[in-house]
Design a protein that fits this description.
By secondary structure, the chain is mainly α. The protein has a single domain, classed as MFS general substrate transporter like domains (Growth Hormone, Chain: A, Up-down Bundle). It is about 80% helix and about 0% strand. Helix 6 runs antiparallel to helix 7 and helix 9 runs antiparallel to helix 14. It is globular, with a radius of gyration of 20 Å. The N and C termini lie far apart (about 40 Å). About 0% of the residues have low confidence.
């Protein structure tokens, strides 16, 4: 039963990744269709992320009242509505209408499933599951590339929605599997605290800033990597540029796959440190003034590989760092903070690159990688200090 449930959760994580890379992959052509500046992708991304923040902040209350399985089913349904809505948009303003269910679905499912896995499975499982998020995020840029080659960007969204529908049906059929250690899931978090109480826990603020910085860099890569190649490398086709949206996601998938094999041996904290170091190496590769686009392409894969273990490891540490009583609220806060970074910083970069040029992207990523590292180290210090007391 547990093995079958894990298979279903793998599929859920694929469904989490599918919508995330579509906007970045399709935007160079969507921008031309809507006749808007390139920075306008940031406003759509911001709206999606803002709705995700709302659902992430509501997640501790929802987790306490509802089963993860029901939150999952409703959330996937909302993302399907968002994807289908994007596929029929003929005007730029219409994207904002469907960005609402698009974002609401993502935040609720992300927080609730991460909480469920963090409390019931090992760090290795958490990394493997987030690897499957990368699978979904790698698939959708190629779906968009095929849509651009044989049809339009709209079909990229509609085809992705059909895959989501299939995953939703599987989740519905899997409802009897959702048990935690043979007990009703509600028993596991009946004494969970709210967000206000969680904010008083030592070190949590530092993890929130770290998550903000991590997702600021990650979301900037999600949205602007294809545009980076369009703006800095000559002679690339629209389909090739769209497919580059998968570079960062391929790296994430690789990083999490490797982490799944080693995380139980070396621990979450050491895994994060190694990951950030690899991310910095990738940023240096993108910095290199090479005329061949392959150097930068490999650099973005390396960046994603380094980023890979950071997100799942921070989430998995929540019950250990803060206790199970606080884990649902802590994960909800971390998700909200993460999506604040995802909401505003790609948009800020969009405005910045219009004024300075998109070649500034690796500098932007470097700043947030350093903030992420410093904040996590400060969090570890606070936790050690609290243990001594």
């Amino acid at each position: 039963m547990v093995s079958l449930l894990l298979v279903v959760i793998y599929l859920i994580f694929i469904s989490l990744g599918l919508p995330d890379s579509l906007l970045g992959s399709g935007w160079p052509q969507m921008q031309k269709a809507f006749l808007v500046p390139s920075s306008y992708a940031g406003y759509v991304s911001m709206t999606i992320s803002f709705m995700t923040i709302i659902s992430a902040l509501l997640s501790p209350r929802m987790i306490k009242k509802f089963h993860t399985k029901w939150i999952t089913i409703v959330s996937i349904g909302l993302t399907i509505i968002g994807l289908l809505g994007f596929s029929v948009c003929g005007e730029y303003w219409m994207l904002f209408l469907f960005a609402v269910p698009y974002g609401l679905g993502a935040g609720a499912i992300d927080a609730s499933v991460n909480h469920y896995v963090a409390n019931n499975f090992s760090g290795s499982v958490m990394n493997f599951l987030h690897c499957f998020y990368g699978v979904g995020a790698v698939i959708s840029p190629y779906i968009m590339a095929l849509a651009l080659k044989y049809a339009r960007w709209n079909e990229g969204y509609s085809c992705t929605s059909y895959i989501q529908m299939l995953i939703l049906l599987i989740c519905i059929f899997s409802l009897p599997l959702w048990k935690a250690n043979g007990k009703d899931e509600e028993e596991d978090h009946s004494d969970s605290v709210g967000i206000r109480e969680a904010l008083k826990v030592p070190a949590i603020i530092f993890t929130l800033v770290a998550f903000y910085a991590y997702c600021a860099g990650e979301a900037t890569c999600f949205l602007w990597t294809p545009s980076y190649f369009a703006g800095t490398k000559e002679g690339l086709s629209a389909e090739t540029i769209a497919s580059f949206g998968s570079l960062i996601f391929g790296g994430l998938m690789l990083g999490r796959l490797i982490s799944g094999f080693i995380s139980n041996k070396i621990g979450d904290r050491k895994l994060i440190r190694i990951g950030i170091f690899i991310e910095l190496l990738g940023i240096i590769m993108v910095f290199l003034p090479a005329s061949n686009y392959m150097v930068a392409a490999v650099g973005f894969v390396v960046i994603g590989t380094g980023m890979g273990p950071v997100y799942p490891a921070i989430q998995h540490m929540a019950p250990i760092n803060f206790g199970k009583k606080y884990s649902a609220a802590a994960i909800g806060l971390q998700m909200a903070s993460a999506y604040v970074g995802s909401t505003f910083m790609p948009m800020v970069f969009g405005v910045l690159q219009e004024k300075t040029g998109i070649s500034i992207m690796p500098v932007y990523l470097l700043i947030f990688a350093i903030i992420n590292f410093v904040m996590l180290e400060m969090a570890y210090y606070k936790l050690r200090k609290a243990e001594v007391k």
